[in-house]
Amino acid sequence: MFIQTESTPNPATLKFLPGMPVLDMGTADFPSADSATKSPLAARLFALGHVNGVFFGTDFITVTKADDVAWDHVKPSILGAIMEHYQSGAAVMEGEQDDAHTAHDGPDSDIVQQIKELLDTRVRPAVANDGGDITFHGFDRGIVYLHMKGSCAGCPSSTLTLKMGIENLLRHYIPEVTEVRAVAA
Q: CA 37, CA 35: separation in Å to the nearest integer?
């Protein structure tokens, strides 16, 4: 098994490409070791120490390291843990995966559907290339609330991406959108 790595815009996060499927569909975010109970692979990575976050896409694993350690020190053990996991034949995830976007019913449901469609077709594929994901969290009085995951969470350029990229895109196609804001998990 050969695992490739790619840098991301977030210097604390590295993208690992195992060359085989990670998830059948969607994404899974584990911002802490406590959140990794549904994933034997994420739990294995957190057990290494110096891992602050794990994120899965369909064909990649994004790992965020602690600030006090260099990639040269943790990358070999992360590669080993991923390889051992796949060789063991254990599942990446146990149980059902959560839906990516927060459900929204109400008077703005048509607008929310348009927002989710633009996110799914224009934003999320581009963000996945950088090892992250952005999902819909809410819409209220013209403000779209988005949850940033993986390499996007804590990335120095995430505010620029949010304001100059996503906000401009949504405002262009959906006049009811006036602003985009990030929310914590």
A: 6
Note the pLDDT tens digit of each residue in 23-33: 988 888 898 99
Q: Which domain holds residue 170?
A: 109-183
Provide mean pLDDT across the span 2-8.
92
Per the structure block, which two tokens stand in for 130? 């950088």
39: which 2 tokens? Answer: 């994933």
Token pair recorded at residue 81:
């843990």
Number of domains making up the chain: 2
Does the pTM surpass 0.85? The reply is no
**Residue 114 sits in the same domain as residue 77:** no
92 has a pLDDT exceeding 70: yes
Residue at 13 is within a domain = yes
Please report the pLDDT score of residue 165 as a whole number: 84
Residue with tokens 């034949």: 89
81 and 8 in a single domain? The answer is yes
Q: Is 97 domain-assigned? A: no
Hey, which bits of 31-177 come out as E strands? 51-56, 61-65, 132-140, 143-150
Residue 101 lies in a domain: no
For the sheet with 4-7, list strands across it.
Answer: 4-7, 13-17, 61-65, 51-56, 28-30
